[in-house]
Fold this sequence. Notes:
By secondary structure, this protein is α+β, with helices and mostly antiparallel strands. It is built from five helices and twelve strands. A twelve-stranded mixed sheet has the order 7-8-9-10-11-1-2-3-4-5-6-12. Helix 4 runs antiparallel to helix 5 (204-215). The longest helix is centred in the middle third of the chain and has 16 residues, at 141-156. Mean pLDDT is 81; it is low at 1-34 and 278-285.
Amino acid sequence: MPRARTRTAVLSAGLALTATLGACTSEPQPHAAVPRAAARPDPRPVAEAMLADTINKINQTGTAHTTMTGSLGVVGQLNADGAVRYRGPQADLALDGKTRNTRTEKLAVSIVDDVGYLNTPLARPNASTPWLKISQDSSDFGSKLLSPALDQLHESVDPRATFSGVEQATRIQNSAPDTVDGRPTTRYELRILTTKAAEIARDEQQRERFQQAADDGEHELGYQLWLDERGLPAKFAATTQVAQAGEVSLTSTYRDWGTPVDIHLPPAHEVGVFEDLPPMAQPPR
């Protein structure tokens, strides 16, 4: 889950201690220990209780309709409507909308059991298979190229993927009353402390991601979360630098929590993959 940027600055300092000897008959005087300045406590509230309550309510409610807007990096600007179904740690997703880069293209996405299916003229295996299968553990070119961006899209619709396991490492920068689509909400500016998150995260990929962020000098990662009067997400916003895709900045707006949703897999005969590199394509690093 569920990628950092910047670099680590290493500061090295040397301390030279000098002692002045007294008279020949005087014993050397011991140096008094200089107490180290205590680290200032972080005055920001820990978000653990609030996030635990929100995650629990998402799990209990189970479904929502969503609108997703923002940038998918090299894929372009995204504007789509869809639905999400939360099943244990899984979040199944279906989106239907448009992307715009040099031109506007239709886009459909289904993600079920962490396997993605993408339908867009920008990434179509051939005329008879309009859907491209994208799996994180697959070795085909399409999966290697597009799974990072699709993973981020997946996480952007599921706040649990961001905060589960690192609630204690998340601080509330500030909060204020707000509205989302005319509904009263509370907007939270949240910061994940990367070093602490890398220590406590239960998921290995989470630990690696937060440790890489800390190593690169990214001491905090920022997110925005709007909660409605029931304590359920009304909106969630995140910006991340994603391999092969560039900066992915997405905002999910939620409505109709608990209503039935319909998430279909595309027909198997309409699904293909990019086994090899398209002409002139460069392999992802």
